[in-house]
# Entry
Amino acid sequence: MDSDKKAAQRFEQALGEPVAGNGLLHRRAFLHGGAAFTGLAAAALTANDALAQAAAQSGKPPLSARTLMTQSTPGAPFSTYGTPSRYEVSTGRDFTFNAAAPGTGSSRTPHHLLDGTITPSGLHFQRNHNGVPTISPEDHTLLIHGMVKRPLTFTMDALMRYPTETHVRFVECAGNNGGFGAALPRQANAGAMHGLLSCSEWTGIPLKILLDEAGVDPTKAKWLLAEGADAASMSRSVPIEKAMGDAMIALYQNGERIRPEQGYPMRLLLPGFEGNQNVKWLHRLKVSATPTFTKDETSKYTELLPGGKAAQFMFTQPVNSFISRPSFGYDMQGPGLYQITGLAWSGNGKIAKVEVSADGKSWAQAALTEPVLPMSLTRFRLWWKWDGGPATLTSRATDEKKNVQPTRTAWLKAYGANQGYKFNGITAWATNELGNVSHVYV
Amino acid sequence: MDSDKKAAQRFEQALGEPVAGNGLLHRRAFLHGGAAFTGLAAAALTANDALAQAAAQSGKPPLSARTLMTQSTPGAPFSTYGTPSRYEVSTGRDFTFNAAAPGTGSSRTPHHLLDGTITPSGLHFQRNHNGVPTISPEDHTLLIHGMVKRPLTFTMDALMRYPTETHVRFVECAGNNGGFGAALPRQANAGAMHGLLSCSEWTGIPLKILLDEAGVDPTKAKWLLAEGADAASMSRSVPIEKAMGDAMIALYQNGERIRPEQGYPMRLLLPGFEGNQNVKWLHRLKVSATPTFTKDETSKYTELLPGGKAAQFMFTQPVNSFISRPSFGYDMQGPGLYQITGLAWSGNGKIAKVEVSADGKSWAQAALTEPVLPMSLTRFRLWWKWDGGPATLTSRATDEKKNVQPTRTAWLKAYGANQGYKFNGITAWATNELGNVSHVYV
# Structure
C-alpha cells in the first residue's frame, strides 16, 4: 500500500482547500476530482484504506483474499408484498406509551439509520391518542357540513373519482425535538430526538374542490373543524384560508393507499402545519365562524410562554435541521474521510441553505439534494476529513423566507425551558479522540 | 336534489370548453373554477351525486342518514414496522414462475391500484433468475478489478462512509409491455401488462468515485462486467461511459436500506437502462476492453428483428405511457365526471408532454405532476365527463429528446410480432355503454 507522503499531499491538493475549519471539504472536489484518486487514494485514508489497515492490524486475512460469496442454492421464491432484509430488523420505530392506555403515545422514525428524503411508510412516526382504528373503507364516509349551502356525505367510492394531486410533504409533531430545556444534554440517537418527523409522497384530493362543491360562504365561514373517527375523536380547528389553500384529503402515501397508522382510509394534510392538525381517520369537516376550541387545542397543543401565558393556534412548524450521521450511537472508525449528512425542513416553504460547522466557529455550506421542495425534508451532505481529534458537528438551516435556526440559548430565552413544542434551536454532536459520538449543547 | 337544466348548463359553462372530443375537460377549469360548484354541482353528476342517486335508487338509506362511525373501543397499539390495512390485501404483486425453479420468474407492480409516482418498496416488481438470496452485509464485499491500477475490495462498513446521492429513478424490465404482438388484445389489468416497471427514491454512491479510486485507464477500459451474488450469477456488460456517468451503487431504497428483492445489500443502478442491467446483489465489477458476452446478454436480452437478425446491447428503455385508471377491471359507475390518470416515462430523460384521447381522433394535453424528473415515472391527469356512450381512452407520451410513442402497427412493422422487448406502442382501453372497461387495439 502506497503511504508515500508526496502522494498524500497531492491528494490533499486535489481535494481543494477546506471550506471551513476542522476538516470540512468541498464536496464537488471529491465528486469531480476523479484524478485525485487514481493511485493516490491509499495515502489519503479513504474508508476503504482505513478499514483495510484495521483488518491487517487485527491479524484477519486481507480483504483481497476473501472468496466472493456467490449463492450455492436457489434463493427465496416470489411474494405478493415484500419486507426488509432480516439483517435490518433493528431498523424499527422505538415507541413510548401510556401503560394504562397502550394506544396513547408515539413512535419515532429512526433517522440515524436512514438516508434519502422519503420515509418508508412502515417507519413513519406515529402520535396516537387512543390507538390505530381498523376502518373498513366500505363503512367510512366523509361528512362536510356546518356553514355550507348543502351538506355532503362522500363515500370512498365517490372520492376515488375526484381529481388528485401528488406532493412530497413532511409531517412533524409539534412535540418533536423536545427535551432540549434539560440541564444536561440527553444521550440519545437522532431518531429519539428528532424522529417525530417523517416525509412521504402524498396523493389526494385538493380540499378546496370538496368545499366548493358543498358551497362555502367566504364572508362568514372562517374556520373548519376536522374530526377523526378514532376512539379519541381527535379534532382540531383549521383556518379557512388553509383549508381553501393547499390542504389535501390524502388517500395515498408513497404510491399505495394510506397506511392505517397515518389515517386509513384518509387523513387531512395541511402542509407545514403541526402534525396534530393533519387529522387522521378523518370523517367530519364542519365549517364555522369561530374555532371550536376542542380538548385537543385547549388542554394540549398550546404553547406555554415564560410569563405563564400560553399561545394558541401556532400552526406552522419552524425552520429546523439536524445531522443524522455521524450522530449519537455512531462510532467513528479512525481518522480519514467521512460524509456528514442530515435533514433540514421548514413549514414556511423551501430550505434555502444549510450550513455545517465542525469547530463551532466556521461554517461551510452543505450540498442540498435536488429537487428542493417546499414543506419537505431536504437532505444535506458535506465531506469531512476527521483528523482524529475532538470535533463538534452542528448544522444551521435557513428557509426561503430567511428564517434561521436560533441558538439553543436564544430559543430558551424566548420560550423558557417548560415549553415543549416547536423547539428549533441549533443542536450538536461531538466526537472525542476515541471516536465516540455524544450529544452536546453549543 | 337540484336537477334543473339551467344549473347543468351553467356548470358546463363554468368548466369551460372541452379540450378534445368525447368529454375531455380542461383540468384547470375544475381546480380553479370553484364558483362552478357552489350549488350547481348536483346537476352536473359529480361522483358524489351519481353515487347518492344510485344509493337512492337501490332503496338503501340515503348517505346523509348514516351515523358517523367513531370507534367505541381503543385502537391497536404501536408497532416497530407498519404494514398496509387489512382491507388492502388485494393490493399485491401477481407473479409467474418456472415450476421447476420457483425463484425464476417475475412479479408485477399493481399500477391499476396505485396513485402518485413512487412505488412502495413492498410492491416493486421483481425479475429474478434464481430466487432472492439472503445476504449478510457482514459477509458481503464489492470487488473492483480487471483493467484498474489497483484492485479494491470494499466491505459494507467501508462503503457506508462514502459520499451518497439521492435520485428518483424508474427501473423497467426490457420485457415489460409484452404480448402486444398477439392477434387479439389480451384482457388483463394495467399491472399485468405494464407492471414490470417501478419507481423509487434511490440513494447510493456515484460509481465514478469508486472506479476513480481503483484507477481506470480511459484509453483502454471500455466496458465493465457487473456480476450479482445470486445463485444465477446474473451478469451484464456495461459501457464505461455509463459507469463513469450517472451509474450508482444503490444502498437505500425509499429511505431505508435496499430491499432483498432489489439487491440487498446493494444493486447497480443505471438510470434509463433496461432493468436487467441494474445488477442486483452486486459483488463484482471487472473493467475490460470488450463486452464479456455473458449468458444473460447472448441467450437472453437480445432483440430479435424481423429479418431474423438480433440486436444486442440495446440499453435504453424507450419513451412510453399507459392509463392506469380507468383501465381493465375498473367498472364505470354511471355517466359523469371522472379523472383519467396514468404514468409516462423515458430512458432518454424527462417527459415533455402526454396527450390523451377519448375518441381516437382528437388529443388533449394532460397535466403532469411536478417536479418532472428525468428517468422517473411521471404521473399525468386529465378530467373527463363520460356521457355514458362508447369511448376509447389512449395516451401518447413525448420525451424531452422529442421521441414519441409509435402506434402499435408502426412498432410491429419495425420489430415484428416475435420481438418481446421494449414495446412502446400506444395502448388503449375502451368502455362500452355498460361501463365495462376492456383492452382494445387502436
